[in-house]
Every structure is written in C-alpha cells, then in structure tokens.
Design a protein that fits this description.
Blueprint (H helix, E strand, L loop, with lengths): L4 E5 L10 E4 L10 H4 L3 E2 L7 H7 L6 H13 L2 H13 L2 E5 L8 H11 L2
Parallel strand pairs: 1-4, 2-3, 2-4
Helix pairs in contact: 3-5
Length: about 120
Amino acid sequence: MAFDIAVKRVYEAPAKADGQRVLVDRIWPRGVAKKDAELTLWLKEIAPSDELRKWFGHDPERWAEFQKRYRTELDSNKEAVAQLRGLSRESKVTLLYGAHDEAHNNAVALAEYLRAHG
C-alpha cells in the first residue's frame, strides 16, 4: 500500500491539504508557537538520536551515511514507526521539520523509509 506522505517545513503555513501534521524533530523549532503549528502529533521518538543528529550537522556530504544510520535506528524503533504508519493509513500525513535544508533532513529520510518499507 502506498502511503500519502508529504514533507514540509514547520515554518510554512498549515494547509487543509496537509492532512495530519506530524512534527518529527526531537527539539521544538525556534520561533514557532505550539498553537500555530496545528499539529496532529509531535512524534519526537521517531527523530534521529541526539548522537546521530549532532554527527550529521546537516552536512550534505554526510547525507548518504546519515540516511543509512537513521534507517538502522528506524528498524529498531518499531513502536514509533508503527504509530506513524497507523496515522498514514487513515489519511494523508505531512511530516514537519525545522531544518533549513529542504533536501537533506530527517523528515525527507523518514518519508523515503516509510515509502520503501510500506
């Protein structure tokens, strides 16, 4: 089953087309009020470990290795992955992140993981 999963910066305005909005960062994004984020869920448990996040540092040269390491973490994080899969079976899910880099971030890696392991 193909899941309807989108990825969006949490700083972009919420839209009805987002469906269920899930923040997938471990740390709350600066400058965003909780009420303005219009979250369905803040699933910090699915975010990369602090160790992996700090190692990656949003360095595009580390992207491929980051994805590999993050997939390994996700493989052993069955409860959080199952929770997100459950939501995505109900309706569209938009994974929200705070990083500046729209191509190299945990939400992009997570969306690819969910599509590949649907």
